[in-house]
Amino acid sequence: MNIIEINNLTKTYKALDFWKRDRYTAIKDINLEIKKGEVFGLLGLNGAGKTTLMKVILGLLYPTSGSVSIFGGSIQDMQVRKRIGYWSELPYFPKYLKTSELLDYFAEIFDVPSDQRKIKIQEMLEITGLSAKKNERIKNLSKGMQGRLGLAQALINDPDLLLLDEPMSGLDPLGHKETRDILINLNKKGKTIFFNSHILSEVEKICDRVAVLYMGTLADVKPISAVQKKHKNLEDYFISVINKEVMKTGVRPAFT
Amino acid sequence: MAKKITIPLLLVLFFFMMCILNRLGTNYIFKTQPSWYFLNAHSYKKFLHILGAGFGMRPLVGDIEYISFLQYYGDKENLTNGYKDLYKYISDITDVDPNFTFAYNYGSSILAWNLQRYDEAIAIIKKGIQYNPTYWRLSLYLGAIMYKQKGDSLGYMKLLEQSMKFEDHPSMLERILGNIYMVYKTPDEAAFYWVKLYKESKYKESRDLAYKTLQKMISEKKIKDINKIIDLLNK
Amino acid sequence: MCGLLLPEYQRTQRVKKIIAVADYIFKQSFRNKILNILIIFVVLSMGFSLIISMLAQESELKMVIDFGLFAIEIFSFLTIALSLSVQMFEETELKTVSMIIVKPIKRFEYIIGKYIGIIVTLFWNTLFMLVTMMIVIKLKGADPWALRMMLAVLYIFISMCVLTSTAMLLSVVTTSVPSCIISLFFVYILGHLTVNLKHLTEQMQNAAAKIGIDIIYYILPNMELFNLKDKVYTTEGLFLPQYFVIMLGYAIIYIAITLTVSSAIFDKKEF
User: Fold this and answer.
1) Which of C13, C21, C24 sits opposite A111 (nearest CB)?
2) Interface predicted TM-score of the whole assembly (ipTM), two decimals
3) CA angle, C76 as apex, C74 and C78 as ends, to 5°?
4) Which domain holds residue B62?
């Protein structure tokens, strides 16, 4: 069963001037399925369109053409959203709230019953190692701790689908390991995880399948097992895909 | 589909209702506030007045103009030219805040009683009456000034006595009335008034003047029943 | 409107979400140092009015009341401007809004919750300023419970509710915080001048000018309708119940329209 189905998805950003002329096409004709219970890694160079794709799936951006279906429905359906957890790269939280207040706020929005809310919040704080910071204002938390808080709020509703945008960005090596363990555990419980990352070593350890985006188009999709059979490591595979695309398009992307 | 049609239709309907209520409310304002209140060329002579209207704070601008008027009147240097701009200062206050009734009281009192500029004083009071038709105390002041102009002392003395009954009378009127009593009433009657002023006036200047005047009257032996006056003072 | 047709459970959930957003916005605003500094300035300025009123010999109480009412209105305006600028900055620059709107909350619920949160902040600020002014008036030896003064403050609060909804609309239409705040300032000033302009057009023959001013008059909030600060001392007045009903009806409809339009625009926004 497919949790996410993306059909011919294109997103073109419009210019901010009065005439709203097209600016550039961030993703073009993407076709992708994410299966239930798998961990899917989306790779690509900076500016390839990974975050744009993630945002279109989440409904933060509207597709220019094509469609996205999640759990067989639209992201505009609140019942679908209740089953999704989202953790963005470098999340910014309102700095005057306390950690527990923020989680309580999100729990309320997820309709977590009030009798279960406190237990859930405590559980999330323990999983992410923030129990000691329960009553701390968010502005007093370090970047790494705010990153963990991002994970806590993504899990507060016990989601079936986790969408993570650069989840390990800003975390120390211990943080990498802890996050990896959390994601593996969640996957064992049957959660589907879709994330993008530049940290290929972690992607290789967690993912079942990977895809490579190159200049807005899907260059390749492969199971990790197939990658490991043919290539030394994921980095080797990634570079070979990029080189192939450069040869095909004749366009070498600038360093961003 | 129904939502796409219903909501815009409802918005248009509410917009028209809002326009009607806006018009009703504005008409109410026009009815209760005379036409001179709005964009009267005199009301907006200064940028400060326009600023006051823009912030909806014309009375505060009126207060600032009032302080400016007090500074002008309090500067003894202006006495040399007979406070020639006094009328303009009072006009500025009452242009931006036509409901500042004390400005009419005080301004007209200075013009009439201190400077003997009766025409200007009457013009100020008449403006005040026009813009505050139900504030009938101004009519008392007008009467008093007109009597003074004609030299009818008893007439204006009576009107000033009536004005004293109201708490918001300017302090100078208390002293003016005392001085009038010194001329037109017996010394004992005048002394009784000064004792009452000394004991009851909320203005320090009035109490000080009352005390000095009584001292002078006592030392000059003008008062017949001096013991009664002293008893009253000591009560 | 459509919410009334939902089953009761869903209506309750909707209300709970709106309250959650309002609570979040209120906490953010209330704990913000900038707003706390504003409160300190209010207290200082009310105290300053006690001193400056000494210059207005024999008219000190009037000056204290005028200054107090002006301070309440201007600091309420600054509360709205600062709350909104902080919110806009967080939403547009720091992208905090994207963490919220991906969750099961409709965008119009977020807009309404945000509006209520700012209004609650405004309410507490206005109440605090009113109490401060009453203390100052009491120190002057006058009656701090004058009904007209209380009504003037109530009308100020209602006018600020209308201005807040306009500010919300401006915040979704404009792309930056400074342009939003500047636009809001001009709406505030023009809102007070529209009645004067309307009166002027009734004496003019120029049809184009009349139409232009009518457009401003009907579209911008008519702040003069709520301005009883000018009329506290008049014997005629706008303190009648009939006028209150008209003014309140206007405020409610204006707020409903601006929030609906804001929600519609916010719905189409991309983050």
Assistant:
1) C13
2) 0.87
3) 70
4) 43-169
C90·A108 Cβ contact <8 A: no
Q: In chain B, which residue's Cα lies nearest the Cα of C251?
A: B18
Could you give the 3-state DSSP secondary structure of residue A160?
coil
Counting DSSP H helices and E strands in chain C, the numbers are 9, 0
Residues B89 and B183 in one domain: no
Closest CB to B171: pick one of C1, C58, C229.
C58
Q: Does B3 touch chain C (CB under 8 A)?
A: yes
Per-residue pLDDT of chain A (256 residues; tens, 9 = 90+): 889 999 999 999 887 666 667 688 889 999 999 999 999 999 988 888 899 999 999 999 999 999 999 999 999 999 999 999 998 877 778 888 899 999 999 999 999 888 888 999 999 998 888 888 888 888 888 888 888 888 899 999 999 999 998 887 777 788 788 888 888 988 999 999 998 888 888 888 889 999 999 988 999 999 999 988 888 888 889 989 988 888 888 776 654 4
Rounded distance, CA A44 to CA A212, Å? 5
B106 and B152 fall within a common domain: yes
Q: Kindly list the residues from chain A whose CB atom is less than 8 angstroms away from the CB atom of residue C96.
A: 92-94
A72: left (phi over 0), alpha (psi -120 to 50) or beta: left
Under DSSP, the state recorded for C228 is -
| Phi then psi dihedrals of residue A196, to 5 deg | -120, 150
CB A159 within 8 A of CB A83: yes
Classify residue B62: in a domain, yes or no.
yes
Who among B19, B35, B54 is closest to C218 (CB)? B19
CB contact under 8 Å between A110 and C31, yes or no, is no
* CATH (domain of B127): 1.25.40
Give yes or no: residues B150 and B224 share one domain. no
Q: How many CB pairs under 8 A join B and C?
A: 138
* Sheet-wide strand order for A65-70: A22-35, A2-14, A65-70
